[in-house]
Specification:
Blueprint: E1 10-12, H1 21-29, E2 35-36, E3 40-41, H2 42-46, H3 50-55, E4 65-70, H4 74-87, E5 91-96, H5 101-105, H6 116-130, E6 136-141, H7 148-164, E7 168-172, H8 186-196, E8 200-203, H9 210-220, E9 224-227, H10 236-245, H11 256-274, H12 276-290, H13 297-306, H14 310-320, E10 331-335, E11 338-341, H15 350-354
Parallel strand pairs: 1-9, 2-4, 3-4, 4-5, 5-6, 6-7, 7-8, 8-9
Antiparallel strand pairs: 10-11
């Protein structure tokens, strides 16, 4: 993507409320080639204060990392993009995809897909402010709704953004109105990739296992994929993707002790970032998602839900991830809400997906 070369086409998407420094570290530890910080408002980047200091602090081991911006005004977007470059982010990403109601009501995120003129003014301002110092990328949804007018506006923004100088686009093939309900239309990604030719397109949407990631690339021709909800509580997905794309079988699901080791590492990094007193509260939402891969998922989930302090969180790890106990095999996620026992190695090979 522009001056940034990645060794692997599966990346961690920006995830509001989740993709902080500890989550990005865990994703890289398990194979992600690139990760994006959670989306931030442009004004929080340019206004002095604690939040700005936190956003513009890029740790030496947090590379390559993308900073995703959201806003409604070209000048503020440009100032924030320049601040991210100066802070050390490797990519500046523009969010035209957020479907949250309060975001749309303030003419941000996915709303801009209904306003090509305003959207492209933002893109041009950001590209000019960054001035080739970093790649500039764009996150989009398929449009505001299923109308032909909405689709026309999507392609107007897409073409205009590449003409303005962006280096890549990530497309989620649901509409803003869909939010996360209903099918993610992967055939639309094929149309986008065919339309833009050799320009870089990453796909997103309904990527919950390694097979999903490779199948999206095989079926649509996109250059890579950005995994979002599918990697919350399942960072092993990146390792599985690397194995599968290398032509090897998908490895077994992580054992309970291995899960516990990763969760403990995630907790330690969270305590480092937020302080030990707050770490338990921050990690609670991650623990709930991690519990899905535990063979006794329901009581583990309940235990994480009940955890209110760091001591509570550590007690859950001690009880439910004890390496000294004989645990059943871990669980492997195969889709949204689809979990299978996976004591044995999966037989799926990369060639069977890439030959589609």
């Amino acid at each position: 993507m522009g001056s940034l070369s990645l060794d692997f086409p599966v990346v961690q998407a920006a995830l509001s409320g989740y993709s902080d420094l500890p989550m990005r570290r865990v994703a890289r530890m398990l194979g992600a080639s690139y990760a994006l910080n959670e989306v931030v408002l442009d004004r929080l980047v340019i206004q002095k204060g604690r939040k700005r200091r936190a956003i513009t602090t890029v740790h030496p081991d947090d590379h390559p990392v993308g900073g995703q911006l959201m806003g409604a005004e070209p000048n503020a977007f440009a100032q924030a993009a320049d601040a991210l470059v100066q802070a050390g982010y490797d990519v500046v990403d523009i969010n035209f995809g957020c479907p949250v109601k309060k975001v749309l009501g303030r003419c941000r995120g996915g709303y801009l897909l209904s306003d090509p003129e305003g959207a492209l003014a933002i893109v041009r301002a950001v590209v000019e402010a960054v001035d080739h110092r970093r790649p500039v990328t764009l996150k989009m949804r398929r449009g505001m709704d299923d109308s032909l007018e909405s689709e026309r506006k999507f392609f107007t923004i897409l073409d205009g953004a590449f003409a303005a100088g962006i280096d890549a686009v990530t497309v989620h093939p649901r509409t803003v109105r869909q939010r996360y309900v209903g099918p993610s239309r992967w055939p639309f990604l094929r149309r986008v990739k065919q339309h833009v030719g050799d320009r870089i397109v990453l796909g997103s949407g309904d990527l919950f296992c390694a097979e999903d990631c490779l199948r999206m690339m095989a079926e649509t021709g996109v250059d890579g994929v950005a995994v979002a909800r599918g990697c919350i509580g399942n960072p092993w997905l990146f390792r599985e993707c690397r194995e599968l794309l290398a032509g090897r079988p998908v490895p077994p699901a992580p054992s309970v002790p291995e899960q516990g080791d990763v969760i403990a590492r995630h907790y330690a990094w969270t305590a480092e970032s937020y302080g030990g007193k707050a770490a338990g509260k921050v990690m609670r939402k991650f623990g709930i998602k991690y519990s899905e891969l535990h063979p006794m998922a329901r009581p583990v989930r309940d235990a994480f839900i009940a955890a209110k302090t760091s001591a509570d969180f550590q007690a859950v790890l001690t009880q439910w991830y004890d390496p000294g106990r004989q645990w059943p095999p871990g669980i492997r996620r195969t889709g949204p809400g689809h979990l299978v026992a996976a004591g044995a190695r999966m037989d799926v090979q990369a060639s069977s997906l890439l030959d589609l």
